[in-house]
Amino acid sequence: MTEKNFLSIILAAGKGTRMKSKLPKALHEVGGKPMIQHVLDAAKNAQASKQIVITGFEADMIKAAVGTQAECVFQEEQLGTGHAVKTAKEKISSFTGSTIMVLCCDTPLLTDSLLAKLYEHHISSNAKATILTALAPDPTGYGRIIRDSNDLVSKIVEHKDASPLELKVNEINTGIYCFEKIELLEALDSLTCDNANKEYYLTDVIEMFKNKNLPIVSMISPSFEETLGINSRLQLAEAEKFFNRRKLLSLLDNGVTILDLDSVFISPEAIIGQDTIIHPFTFIEGNTVIGSDCEIGPNTKIDNSVIGNGVYIYFSYLNECKIKNNVKVGPYVQIRPDSVLEDNAKIGNFVEIKNSIIGEDSKVPHLSYIGDTDLGKKVNIGSGTITVNYDGKNKSRTTIKDMAFIGCNCNLIAPVVIEEGAFIGAGSTITKNVPAWSLAVERSNLKCIKDWRKPE
Ligand code: UD1
Ligand code: CA
Fold first, then answer.
1. For the chain, give me the number of helices (H) and strands (E)?
2. What pLDDT, in 10s, does the model give residues 119-163?
3. 136, 229, 318, 444: which has the fewest C-beta neighbours closer than 10 Å?
């Protein structure tokens, strides 16, 4: 493989008018991160030697998102894609290599392997310009690739400037190219804005190269989807679908069962083990890791959590928590951040767990709030029990040691410790520590009034 040496220039100065948004287009999220981040990642992983981002609309926001990944160059007025590249003229001339790859911030489905192929193709063809093209099912809005009688690219015509015949062409310009820098700089200097948009089009560089007999080649992207350019919210939604589909297909390929490809959404970063089954209406987000032989869903959302093997979670929401092996969660459970469920724990039926550790083989099966609590092993929490962790000012912890049994509808007023094997009678409000293997009941005596009738 060729040693790669190219400068990546990502155009991101445009407002993205068609998005109808306060946010610059580059920062709209899709597939779990801002569009421009996908492009930066693809170029970096394709081994770009250096990256430049052209900023304009909301430049500071873009700059903050880009950070140290690329150098930003400010395009004061957005006079077109050609003008945008020209803004980076000095950086282009001072680049030590000779190849410039131009990318747009609005093609988030791009892969590094496609960019690497484009670069290889450019170098091995000894071309001065290489255009990445694609065959679009509906080419509306895209620049069309116009070929001569020898099937060589002669120019790119923008949709607005195309003749009825040219509009019929379905080979489109993806907006991704490799150029040789000296020829590119020369062409940029002579660009004009004589077109329907009154813009300096980068695409006009191609016709200039052609007129100078400089070798231009093209490479057709194996899939149109990968180079989908996002100009509208509809295209953003379509891209989200493609991202998700790509992820789901790779999971299926790795031995995960997904029952409904249309209602399951899984982030690109998520990892899921073999023989795990994902039921419909399940959302797995962020850096979630799920082991093997689990059953997840239906109607479940898991954010940034780590789940072991053989876990069963259904009709529940889990956020930033750690679930060990063979745990059962659901239905209607919320597990909030910093909670750990140890092996074989069981949580179900309208239970909320927050910042708590639920020990091995322990159960919180019905209608409880467990917050800021350390639960030992084999603890049973009766239905309706609450750990009272907040006095209006401070949060305090509850400790319930191994094998303790908490009856139904108890209030454990933190800070409080229930020692090993202690038994708490149903309905008790516990305000003091309870010693090991003792029974604690806090209940007023039952009063029965004989022969009582409701007054008339
Ligand atoms: C562009 C191409 C078109 C191609 C399509 C692929 C031109 C003239 N047209 O059209 O052939 O089919 O991409 O998606 O190049 N930008 C700047 N500064 C500017 C103008 C634009 O940085 O002055 C940036 C935008 O932020 C965007 C990119 O350039 O990231 C492309 O601009 P956009 O307006 O989306 O171009 P298209 O009309 O999609
Ligand atoms: Ca575009």
1. 9, 41
2. 999 999 999 999 999 999 999 999 999 999 999 999 999 999 999
3. 444
Closest ligand 1 atom number to CA of residue 204: 8
What is the band of 32 on the pLDDT scale with cuts at 50, 70, 90? confident
* Shortest-distance Cα residue to atom 8 of ligand 1: 201
Q: What 3-state class would DSSP assign to 1?
A: coil
Instruction: Determine the distance separating the centroid of ligand 1 and the alpha carbon of 11, expressed in angstroms.
Output: 8
Cβ distance 187 to 209 under 8 Å? Answer: yes
Number of residues that this document lists for the chain: 456
State the pairing for strand pair 340-341/357-358.
parallel
pLDDT digits 0-9 by tens, 223-259: 999 999 999 999 999 999 999 999 999 999 999 999 9
Residue 346 has pLDDT above 70, yes or no: yes
Q: Which of 115, 107, 40, 53 is nearest to 85 (CA)?
A: 53
Residue 456's pLDDT is 84
First to last CA, the chain: 98
Give the model's pLDDT for residue 3: 81
Atom of ligand 1 at shortest distance to CA of 75? Answer: 18
The dihedral formed by the CA atoms of 16, 22, 23 and 24, expressed in degrees to the nearest 10: 30
3-state secondary structure of 386: strand
Question: In ligand 1, which atom is closest to the CA atom of 172?
Answer: 12
Question: Which residue type sits at 283?
Answer: F
Q: CB-based contacts of 198: which residues, under 8 Å, 6+ apart?
A: none
- Report how far residue 76's alpha carbon sits from residue 83's, in angstroms, rounded to the nearest whole number: 10
Element (H, E) at 93: helix 89-94
User: What is the distance between the alpha carbons of residues 69 and 40, in angstroms, rounded to a whole number?
Assistant: 8
Do residues 376 and 402 touch, judged by C-beta distance below 8 A?
yes
Q: Which ligand is nearest to the CA of 203?
A: 1
Integer Cα distance of 390 and 392 in angstroms: 6
- Residues designated as active site: 366
- Residue linked to tokens 């789940």: 307
Other C-beta atoms closer than 10 Å to the C-beta of 194 total 11
Residue with the nearest Cα to atom 16 of ligand 1?
Answer: 14
Mean pLDDT of 371-400: 98
**How many other C-beta atoms lie within 10 A of the C-beta of residue 450?**
4
What single-letter amino acid sits at 300? T
